[in-house]
Design brief:
Layout: H1 2-18, E1 26-28, E2 46-53, E3 62-68, E4 71-80, H2 84-99, E5 105-106, E6 117-130, E7 134-144, E8 152-161, H3 167-191
Helix pairs in contact: 2-3
Length: 195
């Protein structure tokens, strides 16, 4: 009888503990916008993206979403695949490469001559995600032409609708918002003397 009772309790504990399994984490990465068209530029331009700053609130592995005016959720099982500032730099570089028709847009500064490279600094002021509603990306940027000390500065605020539930639509909306920021930066490069 004792043996049967012990087996029953052990089995019950095993079932209860098995039901307490944590959900598995999902990892997300931002991506360039494949629909971006080239500006028709006839010569390649060298551009380096960086530094990039992001607000401390979102500078973490977890995806942070807004759930109220003064409340956010830090989603422990929805994670960025790499640090957000590096992912933003990579996506802006890819988007600018497409917009400027150049394969010489990078996040690495070492291989370029400072007299021929454009520098783009990004200060992300806001990176908001509201599930099921929209995302907002607010970026102050500075574009410094080659060999110059003065930068052309601007600010882009892009809002995109989230197309459905879950984190995939949130990340896709951020991709579109970053493409909008990239368009503004490409326009500044073109207006500053790149032909």
């Amino acid at each position: 009888m004792r043996y049967a009772r012990a087996c029953f309790i052990l089995g019950l504990v095993t079932v209860l503990l098995g039901g307490c399994k944590s959900p598995s984490a999902s990892f997300f990465a931002l991506g360039p916008d494949p629909s971006l068209a080239s500006s028709g530029a006839t010569r390649p331009v060298s551009v380096v993206i960086g530094p990039v700053t992001v607000p401390d609130m979102v500078d973490r592995p977890q995806i942070v979403t807004r759930v109220g005016d003064n409340e956010v959720a830090v989603n422990e099982f929805a994670l960025w695949a790499q640090p957000l500032k590096g992912d933003i730099a990579r996506v802006i570089a890819a988007d600018l490469g497409a917009l400027l028709n150049s394969q010489q847009v990078s996040v690495f500064d070492r291989a370029y001559d400072p007299l021929t490279v454009w520098h783009v600094r990004l200060d992300v002021m806001g990176f908001e995600s509201v599930p099921g509603r929209d995302v907002t990306v607010d970026v102050q940027w500075a574009v410094r032409p080659p060999g110059k000390t003065r930068s052309v500065v601007g600010r882009s605020v892009a809002r995109e609708i989230v197309s459905g539930p879950g984190f995939d639509p949130i990340v896709a909306a951020h991709d579109r918002a970053l493409a909008s920021v990239s368009r503004d930066i490409a326009a500044a490069v073109q207006a500053s003397g790149f032909q």
